[in-house]
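Field reference: sequence -> structure
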Amino acid sequence: MAIKPPSWQKDAVPTLKGWIHPKTKEILVGGSIAQSQIDFYLNAGTISAPEPEVIQDVISDIEIDIEEDIDWEIEEIDLDSMTKLELIETAEEWKIKIDPKATKSKIKSVLEEELF
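Structure field:
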């Protein structure tokens, strides 16, 4: 015979001594419940996990779909036409550490190494 929690406490937990409150552990309904009934009740809502290979296939499919949907737009950067201040700002945007006291050509060469 299947066991059911009390109607006023649907999240009650079955124990060998009866139904208890899930947080306070207070006995809500006393009485003995067989271990087999408790096991059946607790496992009834369990869904068996799919095999790992199936999960990996799904993840691979998702990654492929995501990459196909992304519109990759790469902004062209013309370092030659930039001023020294613009080069410094570009380095800050790309989180490239440079010495602001360095010459324009030195900053440009550092950016070229990092960006291209």
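Note: Residues 1-48 form one domain.
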